[in-house]
Structure formats: structure tokens, C-alpha cells
Amino acid sequence: MSAMAIRDTGDAAGALAWIDGREASLDDAVDAAVELLREGRSPAIGGLATDLKGLEAAVALAEAVGGTLDHAASEAALRDLDLLRETGLVTVTPLQVRAQAQTVVLVGDGVEAIWPNFAADLALDKVPTIATHRGERQIIRIGAASGSDLKVDEEELPVILGALRAAVAGRTVRLPAARLKAVQALAETLKGSSYGVILWSSETLDALSVEMLGGLVNDLNAATRFAALPVAGPGNVQGAIQTVAGITGLPPRLGFGRGRPEHDPWRFDLLRLIDEDETDCLLWIDALDYELPPDTPVPVIALTSGDEAPEQAAVAFAVGRPGVDHDAILFAGAVGGQIDHPASSAATRSARPDVATILGRLRAAYEAG
User: Tell me, what is one Gene Ontology molecular-function annotation carried by this entry (predicted)?
Assistant: First the structure.
């Protein structure tokens, strides 16, 4: 998804809203945004990089305008969700990893990029506290990075994971001799673990690799105890999935065009809607400095945390950063759930409204119209 340039609006540090790049009052900007929403026959709400209250307000607004909802990072996140709902998956909490996992397998090169503190958060340098095996943890890396125990590039990964599944099941594996020896040795190591966990980030893995990993976890449970810990993606995408599903019973990609929530990963893919001219107004939310709106010819209403208006936004609002400018509830990988994130300090609190406040005003004005 391409990010747009930022238009210089001069001394915009104190600005809260813009219309066509010019500083405006919040009231005028709300009126202008609502007019665009009313003119749109198929509005889309995207980005969704915000906190729990902002997500709740986004669902309410989408329902009011009959629009669609899609998170900027949903493409990767849905790979994990599809695995869970299509084949099932044995998952584990970070607390269980800290307390019990004898063997931790890191697959791909995306875990550290998405979760830089994962090793400390999971106490991987500590002995498991309640595991039957009291020795040191074994950390195994499978990926393209230097130092990987099984060095595999991204293109080869599904093949190697399939071979590993076959080796775990005792089936014939056809690979070059050196590769075969490494895969068979790893299979024996995994089967010999009293309790193992496989970590991966779908941000850097394709759907086939994710499917192979889910199958590997299930295969290993025939011989020992294994679980998966898919790493949550950026932009609070896991918080978005949990919040939207908690309200509607369905995750993003979601649409309200027929008066009820419907989930369809293809139909409500925001980039597809834009590319195929199936949306005529885009409301973009990024309070977490994650990603600016995509290039699009349709009118854009932007809620962002920057000091300037996105170049292509017809209407823009400056919003506070969750957990920095205002208290917030966000997903935290270290606990595997949504937790309270107080504002960094009293000094960092700003006069900027949060996303929920702006969206609430838009919905109220739209419904009053």
C-alpha cells in the first residue's frame, strides 16, 4: 500500500483540522466530512490503526453510513485467522510460553521486526518455571537470516515445512542429502520435546507457509505437546479483529451495505474496492503512525496523528496518539490481549481529540442530517 506525501500547511503544530489543505475549525471540518459521507453511495473506512474506543466508534459509523471496514494490516492477519477457522489450531498464551515451553521454534524473519522485545517478554533466557523438563530452553530458528539453525529462504519455506511435516509423520522425504539430514534431525528434536511452541509472523509468510505451520503443530501433537503463537501484526490489527468481532460477531473485512454486518475477505478488501472503483469515499484512520492513506481518486477523510494534513485528504483531522496523548486500550503481544495503556505522562497529554471523539461527532451529525 503506497503512502501519500505530506502537504506543508505552514505552522500547523496547533492545527486540529483542515479542509482542502487549509486550516479549519473542527465544526467546519466535521460538516465537510459528513457532506462527503452523505454524497458517497459506498463509503469505506480503512486504516483502523487506533485503540479500542476508536474501533468501537468506527464500527458504529460504518453501520450508520452502510459502509465497509478494513484494517491496513488485515491481509496478513487474515492468513492466521483463515487457518484457525478452516483447520483449527492449537494456540498458546505468552504466559504459557514463559512458564512451560521447553522448545521454542521461530519461523521466518518477521518475528523480531514485529515484536522486537519478544525474547525478553517471553523470558526465553530463563528456565521454564513449571515445566516437567527443567533444563535450559532450546531456541530453534528456521529462516533466511544468518545464524538460523535451518537456513531457508522465503520461496523454499513451504517446501521445507512440508518436508518437515512428512518427517515428523515418518513418511518418505525426497530432498538433497544434506537438506534431508537436517530436516530429519529437526523432526526428531521436535518430537523429543516435552512441550514446544512455534512462533511466526504472517507479515513475512505466505498463506501456504502458514497452512504448513498449522499442520505441523497438529502433527506434532500426535507424538508430544506442541502449540502455536502467531505474532500479532502492526497497527493494533489484532485489537481491531478482537474488537470488531466482539461487536458484530465477525472480523474485518466487513460491510454494512445491506443493513447487517457481512464478512468477505475478497469483497471488502479495501485496496480491491479502490482499484475496481467500488467505493466513492474513503475515511482513513491512523492514530498510531502506522500508514497514511493509499493513493485514490475518491475523496479522502483522514484522521491521523501527524502535524500536517495528508496531501490527498479533502478533509483531515489531527488526532491524539493512543497511550501517548490520551489513555487507551490496545493489544499487547506480551500478554496476548488488550490492556490499558495510560498516557505516557501528564506532560505528553495534548488537546487533540481522540479518534472516538471525532468519529462520534461524524456519526451524530450524519444521523441528525
Answer: formylmethanofuran dehydrogenase activity
- For 295, list phi and psi in degrees, rounded to 5: -65, 130
Q: What type of residue sits at position 65?
A: V
Pair 44, 167 in one domain = no
Residues 179 and 150: their CA atoms lie apart, in Å, by 9
Number of folded domains that form the chain: 2
pLDDT at residue 145, rounded to an integer: 87
> Which triple of cell numbers denotes residue 170?
515418518
Specify the residue for cell string 519478544.
118
Q: What does DSSP assign to residue 89?
A: -
Kindly state whether residue 333 falls inside one of the protein's structural domains.
yes
The radius of gyration of the chain's CA atoms, rounded to the nearest angstrom, is 23
Is the Cβ–Cβ distance between 354 and 319 less than 8 Å? yes
Q: What percent of the chain has pLDDT over 90?
A: 85
The continuous run of DSSP H or E covering 71 comes out as strand 68-71
Would you give the end-to-end CA distance of the chain in angstroms? 34
Report the DSSP pairing between strands 254-255 and 150-151: unpaired
Q: Return the HEC string of 160-221.
A: HHHHHHHHHCCCCCCCCHHHHHHHHHHHHHHHCCCCEEEEECCCCCCHHHHHHHHHHHHHHC
Tally of CB atoms within 10 A around 250: 17
Cell triple for 27: 465544526
Q: pLDDT digits over 84-99, tens only?
A: 999 999 999 999 999 9
Residue 112's SS3 state is helix
pTM of the model: 0.90
Q: Which residues does 48 contact at the CB level (< 8 Å), separation at least 6? A: 55, 58, 69, 70, 71, 72, 235, 236, 237, 240, 252, 285
What single-letter amino acid sits at 43?
A: P
* Dihedral, 33, 39, 44, 48 alpha carbons, nearest 10: 10
CATH of residue 57: 3.40.50.740
